[in-house]
Amino acid sequence: MMSYDVTIVGGGIVGLATALQLLTASPDCRVLLLEKEQQIGLHQTSHNSGVIHSGLYYKPGSLKAKNCIDGYRLLIDFCKAEDIPYDICGKVVVATHENEMPQLKELYQRGVANGLQGLRVLTARELREIEPHCVGIKGLYVPQTGIVDYQQVAEKYSEKIKMLGGEILLEQQVENIVQTDSGVEISSTRGFLWRTKKLVTCAGLYSDRLARITDPDLPVRITPFRGEYFKLKQEAKTLVRNLIYPVPDPAFPFLGVHFTRMIDGNVECGPNAVFAFAREGYKKSDFNFRDTIESAAWPGFRTIARKYWRAGLAEFYRSINKSAFVQELQRLIPEISTEHLEAGGAGVRAQACQRDGQLLDDFFFSEKKDCIHVCNAPSPAATASLAIGHSLSKKILESL
């Protein structure tokens, strides 16, 4: 049985950043990272649009706000040092109706409170100067927002982990975790067994399952939401210069359909947000019995279904009806038509839900003796990855 100082479960960008920060702070630390897939970053890390978030949306003082802002600076410095292409292109948040103005003002105030510089409220004319094809009555310009390929970032994290002496094992799905007087024992479905002083799980879509092994009373469950995207065809890419977002609906816990220029030059349109009948359900037809039953059995999910059933039906309708999806896009860019769109990718968001039906709006960690479980780390976790990793590594090294 191999022994380590720290073992990390999960080879997504948060797990990798944690291993990297541990080894950077303590080069003699024996670090093992276990990943169940054949490659790192196969799920949320590589199934997103690559936005470098500025910290605009998050409640001042929250873990999301602090880690996003700190992580933003760390990520930019990392990309510069490692020659990873990125672009701080800025974005606009667009109000299309008067009833969205209070929320736009609230976003501005949050951004200022979180230390963002250069925020600017735009008139309709100024909005068109930045995004000529976009229509709105007011806008908010956010100059710090950028784009990057997070899979490329994750691969560079992995490369540096190995250079610093860390070990990454692929195709090792953790089956059990046993806490002992001297640390933690971890076993995989392939029969391997490891002993570690400290364990950190960053399992994304399966974070609650692993956490419940050592924390049976875990107060949250992961509810998977699939986000589906279209891409603009080549001839329509000129309709979008950079990033165009709607004012988020405070009654619905997602940002809404938006346009995102990606670092490879493509432009994504989306996502909608529909319940996924499988935790890795990237296709409409994907179904996993255990995943679906677990969600349905959680009281919080049933509360969400009752609360948001109208919005949920609208999202499902747009999922199966391209014309309805286009109508939503036309709120921001009226020139968009069905002929401009081709099929894009999809991602599944690991969203923690409390027993009372509240969708957690902040990062959430469960700590039990020698184990730390990252139980809710959706967006902006990729932007914040090095800051999250720094916080976790500091806590671990102090306890060691």
How many β-strand stretches? Answer: 20
Low-confidence stretches at least 5 residues in length (pLDDT < 50)? none
The CATH topology of the largest domain is what?
Answer: FAD/NAD(P)-binding domain
Say which CATH homologous superfamily of the largest domain is assigned.
Answer: FAD/NAD(P)-binding domain
Quickly name the level 1 CATH class of the largest domain: Alpha Beta
Radius of gyration: 21 Å
Portion in helices: 25-40%
Main sheet properties? 9 strands, mixed
What portion of the residues fall into strands of 2 or more residues? 25-35%
- Tally of DSSP helical segments: 11
From the helix content, strand content and strand pairing, which structural class follows? alpha+beta
* Overall pLDDT score: 96
Name the CATH architecture of the largest domain: 3-Layer(bba) Sandwich
Molecular shape: globular
Distance between the termini: 21 Å
Structure write-up:
This protein has 400 residues and is an alpha+beta fold. The chain folds into three domains: 2-46 and 151-218 and 363-399, FAD/NAD(P)-binding domain; 91-143, no CATH class; 220-354, 2-Layer Sandwich (D-Amino Acid Oxidase, Chain A, domain 2), CATH 3.30.9. The protein contains eleven helices and 20 strands. It has helices at residues 13-25, 63-82, 101-113, 124-130, 150-163, 207-214, 289-297, 299-307, 309-320, 322-330, 385-399, and strands spanning 2-9, 31-34, 51-52, 86-87, 91-95, 120-123, 138-142, 146-148, 167-169, 174-180, 183-188, 193-201, 220-232, 243-246, 258-261, 267-270, 274-275, 341-354, 364-368, 371-376. The strands form three sheets. Strands 5, 6, 7, 13, 14, 15, 16, 17 and 18 form a nine-stranded mixed sheet that branches. Strands 1, 2, 9, 10, 11, 12, 19 and 20 form an eight-stranded mixed sheet that branches. It has a three-stranded antiparallel sheet with strand order 3-8-4. β1 (2-9), α1 (13-25) and β2 (31-34) form a beta-alpha-beta unit. The two termini are 21 Å apart. The model has no long low-confidence stretch (mean pLDDT 96).
